[in-house]
Specification:
Elements (H helix, E strand, L loop, with lengths): L4 H19 L57 H10 L4 E5 L5 H4 L19 E5 L2 H25 L6 H27 L12 H9 L9 E2 L6 E2 L4 E3 L4 E3 L4 E3 L4 E3 L4 H31 L12
Antiparallel strand pairs: 1-2, 3-4, 5-6, 7-8
Helix pairs in contact: 4-5, 5-7
Amino acid sequence: MKHNSSELSLLEDIQGSDKSDAIAPKHNGINTIPPVYRKSPRTPSNTLYTEETFDNNLMHVNMDPARYRGLRDLDLDSWDDEAAAKLRFSLRPSGDLLDYLSLCRHPCGLRALIHSVNSRPLRRTFGVIWFVRDLCGIICLFVTWMLILYAEFVIDFIILGHTPSPTFCWISGTVYHFFALLAVVSHFKAFTTDPGSIPIGAANQALGKYLLQYSSYLSTMPVRCTKCLSIKPLRAHHCRICQRCIRKMDHHCPWVNNCVGEGNQKYFILFAVSHADFISYTFSVHAYIYLFSSRTSGVTVNPRTNY
């Protein structure tokens, strides 16, 4: 077979590089890179492409299912329906719905709840909220409300009592109480709203066969949580405190005693922003009163409080 000049020069370069790899000494690991990872010279468009060879001993792929936070398989033989049913009907997770009117529903003639699987009501009913039964979270809730009440006491009886004028006192008090009320309401909604819980024990073989039938239409492979035996949607994570998977979970915040997820993320952001606003406004009002009083001979006393 005849070769043109470009092909002959290319073959000479390749043979020369192979010889240099074979006879080159190893100095401090400089020449210890395997030849398979080295860049081969570019071949012209009119020549045949060189065949690439890979050494399986040099390739390491992490196939550990723990990195996916679940099992990305549809092996239905490993899906235990008995264990899933036991979790679905017997497990009472710490994060679940709470009916605080359960004791007075029947005596008062209120509408009874019609529950489905995992104690989920089939319709929205008055008196049912989401609550996480966690001791640390409940203590943090109590501390948060005590701090808000203490801030109210300091503003009403100490800071606003030394304002330069009654008009400034009423305007500052109105703005501050607006931010405080917004923080209280958003905090209440953040810890009483379902963050996006996923039913426990839903990963049975019937659902697995359905997913296997339509697996070609799915963008990603289904993920089965090995802790609560549920099918995890995209960006869902298992919370060890709530003991269940949460859709679009960001983190579990102890100050709201709840996970921050798909259902209550807006309330959590509103609580954080409003809380930062009324703290900043409190410091600004206090700084204004301090600067105003320093310019006068003494502390300005509000006639409304007489101190």
